[in-house]
Amino acid sequence: MITLVDVSRTVTSGAGRLTILKPISLTIPRGQSVAITGASGSGKSTLLGLIAGLDAPSTGRILLDAEDITALDEERLARLRGAKVGIVFQFFHLIPSLTALENVMVPMEIAGRADARARAQSLIDDVGLHGRGHHYPSQLSGGEQQRVAIARALANDPPIVLADEPTGNLDSATGQQVIDLLLDVNRKHGRTLVLVTHDLDLAARADRIVRLKDGSVVHDALSSGVRVAGAEAR
Fold it and tell me: At 28, phi and psi to the nearest 5?
């Protein structure tokens, strides 16, 4: 479960103090897929970064499985993030000097897993890239690179997957395939999925849509035909 209690984010800019997010309270049950939507500058990516523990809120508390991540030091936060959160970015962030397989192995090697290579190969196969693990990022299409990024995000079997505009650099058909993959991970394996997207058609495929405007939540509702989220949650 993800819980935000009166979470806000204010930064200092050249013109003074800029409030990116006004106080927000949200609860996301285990196993639910949530799409965060809104115009550019509405605070979508900032909200996701706060949930991931990549940034600290100016006010409020963020709890992942009842653990207050805002109370953790950097070392403990990094350990929790490595165990509980997988992140997929818009720009892939693959290491160019490593093969697809080696990119997926990185978080497992950091965690000291002995089965890193075998599990990485299994994940590469799961995202439809069997036979492509030995290729470098420059040898892969944008959609293939994003699939590698998803496999890497799943490496340590996190209960929470966060995706920040994962289809932003992809054509429509490839973007649909990437969303299919993320929703498959959510619905077959019970992982909580929080997805930032500007594409309302993609957002409608999630269980729930949260829309931001000027740093505030202006819409929060279940999608039509939503399944019962969390029923099979881990």
Answer: -120, 110
